[in-house]
Amino acid sequence: METIEVKKYGLIGFPLSHSFSPKYFAEKFEKENIEGCSYEAYPLQHILEVQKIIDDGVLGFNVTIPYKEDILDFLKETDDCATAIGAVNCVKNVNGLLYGFNTDEYGFRTSLLDFIGQSFDGKALVLGTGGAAKAVFYVLNALKIPYLVISRKQDYITYEQLTPSMVQDHRLIINTTPLGMYPQVDEYPNLPYDVLSKNHYLYDLVYNPAETSFLRKGKEMGAKTKNGADMLVLQAEKSWEIWNQK
After folding, report:
1. What is the reported pTM?
2. By CB neighbour count within 10 A (0-12 exposed, 13-18 middle, 19+ buried), where does 166 fall?
3. Which residues are known to be catalytic?
4. Helix %, strand %, coil % of the chain (to 5)
């Protein structure tokens, strides 16, 4: 009997206990009758362990926290978008040489425009400065949406310095921090939520739970809300497209 060689794909990061991708791709392979492919989680305690995945013949993998920047040292080349952002979340293995892409940018831009519309003319607050924030900054710059960055780091406007009038003045608020992510579902960014209105848009990159405390508190004030689920699906599909391009 002929043995079919399985095409391997996966996800690296640490920890990976609640990651979206393995379940998503398993369902995709089944639903679309894609045979001879597997997608596994590879929790790496150190980025150097990525060599085992390359040696194992994994054809493509996604990259999540905390390795979106560390992986750059292992790549032969990155595309223009990943170079500009300085972070990679999708890697293609071509005969042992690794090529990096950023599909977070595509996922965020597409889902954001679906949420706020093409003609949004307001300003944004971006909460957080981690790896996930970099794709957000890139997209906001490309869309010419002015933004302020709020962070616990002293180089930025801190949550303590954020005034109610700043929040009123910035109608799009994007949470790029893990605050409120399962299992710490009661946590949320420290904002003056009582000044939010129906003119505000709250976008949370967190997708588990589907409604974070941040989004719930915004919705209570009439704000429009969106979680990161669509962004994840879009970036996953874009990754699949990259891995299967000739």
Report:
1. 0.92
2. middle
3. 68
4. 35, 20, 45
- Domains (ranges, CATH) in the chain? 7-102 (3.40.50.10860), 105-230 (3.40.50.720)
- What does residue 163 show for φ and ψ, rounded to 5 degrees? -100, 160
CA dist list (Å): 127 to 130, 161, 244: 10, 13, 35
What's the start-to-end Cα distance of the chain, in Å? 29
Q: pLDDT tens, 1-49?
A: 556 789 999 999 998 877 889 999 999 999 999 999 999 999 999 999 9
Structure tokens at 30: 């089944």
Take residue 149 and report the two structure tokens written for it: 């960055």
Q: How far is CA 175 from CA 45, 86, 94, 141, 163, in A?
A: 26, 19, 35, 17, 17
Query: Which candidate, 103, 42, 52, places its Cα nearest to that of 74?
Result: 52
